[in-house]
Amino acid sequence: AGRTLHAVRVRGLQPGTDYRYRIFSQEVQSWPDVNNVTYGKTVGADASRRRAYGFRTFPAAGSGCSFLVLNDIHGKADVLTRLCKRVDFSELGFVAFNGDMSSSVESGEQLFKDYLDASAALFAAGTPILFTRGNHETRGVFADSLGDYFPGRDGRFYGIYRYGDVCILLLDCGEDKPDDFWVYYGLNDFTKLRLDQKAFLEKELKSKEFKKARRHILINHIPIWGDKDVYTDNYHPWTALWSPLLEKAKFDVNLTAHAHFFYVIEKGKQGNPMPCIGGGGPSMGGKEVGTAMGLQKNGDKLRLRVFGADGRTLLDRDL
């Protein structure tokens, strides 16, 4: 009752099922001691005038899967809105945020201004979100509270999900500089985070859930491969840690971000065991204003389309 941000974890939901929900909140005006609580008004959706919100859980089986990936919005809610204005979210199973939706995390109010308000207006009331943290989202005085807004499994920003016969793997690269870089003031330990994910990969890539999937999608913010083309620094420890494990698995595509420009690295060009597709982001003075990636699986066919905020198609290909 002393919090203004609430997360409700609903258990026992069935896969591939439509659910409806409403939100109500009752004010606690005072709570001076354990036996004395004074309540105020209850606010919420007008049940007589407004339809309930709805969502659909991920199916346990089936060959259909369609989702959208957004990345590197950096607080430009207008760019997010333009990217999504032609999207029919009723046809999507989920939306993936692939990092750096904000430039830093300073407050809850800032998160809503940067992209949460726009997302709620566009799709978030009824479309599930998978969240991959970017390096900028590790920065800021409110960064440790980011998980309160995206309460994933065990408080982690990485995980493995099944949508029918498609397996989606999310990885958290952490920061793009060493832990002892001066600007972090000794507060980072992303080395441990990456080692934890190596152990996670060693287990999950052998699991029945992963092996029985027909298609496999890898999503992470900072590129694991392609450093010669995408960024110029020499700090990319995730490659040495994770690449040997990922090379043994059969992924169809790696959807990545971070570089702020759209790119394609074909399989094997930079030691990458799968095609790597990088989404763009609002540039710092150039013409590019971001991209969105739409991936659709229909039967055995897996197709990826990348488009800009102006609706221009940058890539449309089978995987």
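Second entry:
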Amino acid sequence: HYYKPSNFSKTSDVVYVIPGGGRNGDDYRDSWIEKAEEYNVLVLSPEYNEKNYPEFWNYNLAGMYEDVKINQDRTAIESFRINNNPKEWIFNDFDRIFEEVKGNLDLNTDTYDMFGHSAGGQILHRFAIFNSNNKANRILAANSGWYTTPTDSDEFPYGLKGTIQSSEKIDYSSELIVFLGEKDDANETRGSLRRSPEADKQGLGRLTRGKYFYNSSKEITSQFNKKHNWKLEIIPDVGHDYRKMGQAAADYLYNSEK
């Protein structure tokens, strides 16, 4: 799904808007129309439907699980394998789609921005971790339910153990922004929130878990004496609301007076 603003030109910015677990790219696109007009931004909102990308491992985890077996009452995963073939991850779609759009519209820009909410935020922080060689400029991962922390000791998907990535090899100089709603805390009832010992180690609400992820990344970069460019932004008085977070994201990205 896409929206091309009325004053669109070859110099317009491009932003990906990645939906949450509802996979509703059209609604997410629509929620950006007003801001797209205000800032003259081309909106691209890819939709990965349940039929072709079933369950969270093909969406939230971008296809990094394979050969998944579910128990009979579908309450738990019995077994899986980590897919360590980057060519099969959906992360690759973003550059490919952008290049096609750029060519068709003769755009001047060589980069794109990204905003993902909830499950979309999960995709984007993992995108920054596992696919740092990309054309993305600023990556806003908003209100993720839980995180892959950049630790080698925790098993994937809560850490990097078992994957082809390591904490030392991650590009922390990329502009990943952990974008959190102040009221998306343990009291928020909107959206489903994973409960497990591994997830609860990160906190009991999305706000706390986002802070945990960000602080963990800072600690790790200090151990390796690496540049840490990731940021933490907390939006006041907003909970698990993709429309309000999207509006705040547009202002954060494109309002030069802020």
